[in-house]
Amino acid sequence: MNQKVAVIGAGLTGLTTAYYLQKKGFDVTVFEQADRVGGVIESVVEKDFIYENGPSTGVLGQPEAAALIEELGDACQLEIADEDAKFRWIWKGDRWHALPSGLMGGIQTPLFSWYDKFRILGEPFRKKGTNPDETLAALVRRRMGESFLKYAIDPFILGIYSGDPEKLVVRYALPKLYQLEQKYGSFIGGAIKKAREPKSDWDKKATREVFSMQGGLTSLIKALANAIGAEQIRLSQKGLNVERENDQYVVRKEDEPLGTFDRLVSTVGGHALRKLFPFFPSAELEKIEAMPYARVAQVSVGFKKWEGIPIKAFGGLVPFYENRDVLGVLFLSSFLKGRAPEGGALLSTFLGGVRKPEMVDLDDDSIKALVEKELKSMLGLTKWQPDLLVINRYQHAIPQYGLESADRLAAIANLESQYPGLLLGGNIRDGIGMADRMKQGRQLAEIIGDSSN
């Protein structure tokens, strides 16, 4: 097969796309503006800790994710989180409470009001919604109640999107939840019915387990890059732009042509499309650029000797209504091996998000002081002597799939239709999780493969 394909972006989506395209026999070149592969995924080994500059874990929520890791074989080793990862804490008042996972726990928990506990019992009998653009907050109020929104869904959304449930539209942001109500008429009843349905061997790969890779997520990235081949990946390609000439795509670095391609896949964020594709109609770009991003600061904190409360859980989430200065904290060393020395702890703390973006603009000293105050108060630390403290800021951390999503997706479809051979991927569509990215990368390769037969 002589067709040449350019993939813009060497993050997880771009590398997965290139990997599968290469397996199909395409001549693939990956272009990346940074001096390394991986995008936001970067594992760091420092002072006996392994921490992540970016996502810390994924969820095996798509069969394609498990299949890709299996295909890479011994090049990277999947690590499934320990049992502690099944426990989630929610902050209310002045202490942590376990997020209930069953009916009895839901009745006994102090997180929800008694009124809403009775409402939850009646959830399977409520009519399904009729507004396709209903926000998550509106849906949860309608089916579960206000306290369930504040102390279950709001922190859950902070943990995934760093977002605001009042602005996220369910069918775009949480399509599986949307389908539970639309197909089965209920969250609770739908979950039970769906669990009873027979699954194919392929579907069974989506175990919903929390995962990382032995030694950190970068090992997955390295395995993909090695499978593609270093000669096919061009790093440090800042100032890229694309021109369309004679039904092909010319990739340029400033004014220097780097190659002409029959197909081109973009995996960059919506904010970067205008410079990359100067020939795109502005009206369509504006619809994609209307999607907001959460700004987030991530603070990795390591202790070689942990002297706080026992942290046997995935982490603690802080509802917005509690008015704390952190969104939550992951207890990475509690459920992943080798992240901290024996008897120590590695924490990943998050600030900012859609509703407190100004936190990201604080200077390092202010962030350090704030994290010290919050973690000492919430985790029972009487002294503050971390052996590791690393701050990362992300101006475009997580896209928010809100009311503008229909226009954005229509604009993407119009651009792909107007410019044959071009595909727009990345987190501007199809979900934000690692499993979503791997699924999309495989699908993009299949689209190109199918259209070339």
User: How much beta, percentage-wise?
Assistant: 15-25%
- Uncertain parts: none
Rg over alpha carbons: 23 Å
Quaternary organization:
single chain
Major β-sheet strand ordering: 8-7-16-17-18-15-19
Kindly report the average pLDDT value.
96
Number of strands: 20
- Which word captures the global form? globular
Task: Provide a descriptive summary of the structure in words.
The protein is α/β, with parallel strands linked by helices and 453 residues long. It contains 16 helices and 20 strands. Helix 2 crosses helix 16, helix 8 (175-184) crosses helix 9 (187-196) and helix 12 (282-289) runs antiparallel to helix 15. The longest helix has 19 residues, at 434-452. The protein is globular. It starts with a strand and ends with a helix. The mean pLDDT is 96.
Keyword list:
7-stranded mixed β-sheet, 20 strands, globular, 16 helices, alpha/beta
Helix-strand layout with pairing:
Layout: E1 4-8, H1 12-23, E2 27-31, E3 43-46, E4 49-52, E5 58-59, H2 63-72, E6 78-80, E7 88-92, E8 95-98, H3 103-108, H4 114-121, H5 136-143, H6 146-160, H7 170-173, H8 175-184, H9 187-196, E9 210-213, H10 218-228, E10 233-234, E11 240-245, E12 248-253, E13 256-261, E14 263-266, H11 273-276, H12 282-289, E15 293-303, E16 315-317, E17 328-331, H13 332-335, E18 345-352, H14 364-379, E19 388-399, H15 405-418, E20 422-424, H16 434-452
Helix pairs in contact: 1-10, 1-16, 2-16, 8-9, 12-15
